[in-house]
Amino acid sequence: MRHREPGAGAPGERFAVLDPATGEAFGEAPDQRPDELDDVVARAHEAWRGWRSDPAARATALLASADAVEAAGAELAPLLTREQGKPLTESYAEVARTAARLRHFAGMAPELRTITDGRPVHSEIRWRSLGPVAAIVPWNFPLQLASAKFTPALAAGNTVVLKPSPFTPLATRLLGSVLSAALPEGVLTVVTGREPLGALLASHPGIRHVTFTGSVPTGRAVAQAAAPGLARVTLELGGNDAAVLLDDVDVERIADRLFWAAFRNCGQVCMAVKRVYAPARLHSQVVEALAARAKTVVVGAGLDPGTELGPLNNAAQLARVEQCTDRALADGARAVAGGHRLDRPGYFYAPTILADVPPDSRVVTEEQFGPVLPVLPYRSLDEAVEAANATRYGLGGSVWGTDLDRAGAVVDRLECGTAWINHHAELSLAQPFAGIKDSGVGVAGGAWGLYGNLRPFVVHRPREVRR
Questions:
Q1: Fewer CB in a 10 Å sphere around the end CB: N or C, the chain?
Q2: DSSP designation for 174
Q3: Helix or strand or coil: residue 236?
Q4: What is the pLDDT of residue 465?
């Protein structure tokens, strides 16, 4: 199937895209010039005039977009695996999630609200779109996070300029091409390139909303770039999620769920479990149960059918994970499983379970974003909750135990935006998603994501026609 190529500008320089399973280039993408953004944003603004005016046409186009994404799954998923590294089954799941989100938001519309408060007029609260939206997306879930940004924005009547990470531009460009068959020209434009393209997009005066997922330092830079134009910002800036195990937990029963809550996508998940706090008397059992799974999980290229865990996405992230782990080992931690990069081409790191980790070690206090999990003992529940909350992040957290009421009481004490009991990192398309502290600004997901792309417009009307 051939798709119309989205994007802007005449052919220019290109940059290589590497396969993380080999470390070698397998494709290339346009390194679009910063001066092309003016034309891109201008076309998005022009397309906005028609797109915002017909909600029924928008819903039809989003449903057609979902069909197009599903039809292109056999093209999208292998390309996503090739540039991101995740197992092919996970790439297919990401494509399916993208289509599901398009269908979900196609059926959503803001509600007209009327306020009557005893005055001779009543107030109608209507909703208007913002204009062109900049969506800047990281490399861990390129399609899923892109759709989490552009789908509610489009459903609300905005147009979108989408910039993927330079590590994973190809599947997103293909997604843009697929969607071009269902969307009017200029409604969704994919731009690719290395910095300063993203910073310039965030600061462009024609952009009215900047939605970004990535690191805290880059998020701060995005907010600063958007500030002069007073563009709205939504920032999802990662997490350092803690899992607190209660003393009545059934270790073997929860071990698989807990392991994959930490290691899915090679640990490159903002809301993955990044720290485990276990009661002192169960600590060794928890460590051994997780280590047994780490030692047997199949690590390999994402395109290999038997692979359960792929490589890290890029050399810089591999180096970060390695440095973080090496520092913990130097501080006295013990690698019960893994603790080293694998001796093969590509960006592979052995699934790692750490015990005897100092609480102030970098692998505990920072987001490692890789296949490394420290397990720390606690002697009192108050100590565990205090340690779980002792971080600048506040994205997610979980409590694991047999007594659900007791677990629920502990969940209420966690300082985070989303908490789970006996599972982790599972989200519904209908729910809000937001962090506290350094984990972000604004709300995504569900109706909250839709209204985050709208502004209220208030009309006062007399109750009676005056003659």
A1: C
A2: H
A3: strand
A4: 62
Pairing of strands 352-355, 334-337: antiparallel
Query: Is the distance from CB of 235 to CB of 440 less than 8 angstroms?
Result: yes
Q: What is the pLDDT of residues 380-435, one digit of tens each?
A: 999 999 999 999 999 999 999 999 999 999 999 999 999 999 999 999 999 999 99
Q: Other C-beta atoms within 10 Å of 288: how many?
A: 16
Report the relative pairing of strands 454-462 and 121-129 from DSSP bridges: antiparallel
Residue type for position 355:
A
Tell which residue, 348, 23, 52, has the closest CA to residue 167. 23
R_g of the chain, CA atoms, integer Å: 23
Catalytic-role residue among 36, 90, 236, 367 = 236
Which of these, 415, 454, 451, 447, lies nearest to 431 by C-alpha position? Answer: 447
> In 156-242, which residue ranges form alpha helices assigned H by DSSP?
170-179, 197-202, 216-226
Contact 212, 234 (CB under 8 A): yes
Q: How many CB atoms lie within 10 A of CB 217?
A: 9
Whose tokens are 């979108």? That residue is 160
What burial class does residue 380 get, using C-beta atoms within 10 Å of its C-beta: 0-12 exposed, 13-18 middle, 19+ buried?
exposed
Distance CA 318, CA 347 (A): 6
Computed over every residue of the chain, the mean pLDDT equals: 96
Q: Does the annotation mark 236 as catalytic?
A: yes
Task: Outline where 6-54 has alpha helix (H).
Answer: 37-51
| Residue 413: predicted pLDDT | 98
pLDDT in tens, 46-59: 999 999 999 999 99
Cβ contact 8:16 at 8 Å: no
With 0-12 / 13-18 / 19 or more C-beta atoms within 10 angstroms meaning exposed / middle / buried, residue 429 is: middle
Q: Does residue 435 contact residue 241 with C-beta atoms inside 8 Å?
A: no
Which H/E stretch holds residue 118? none
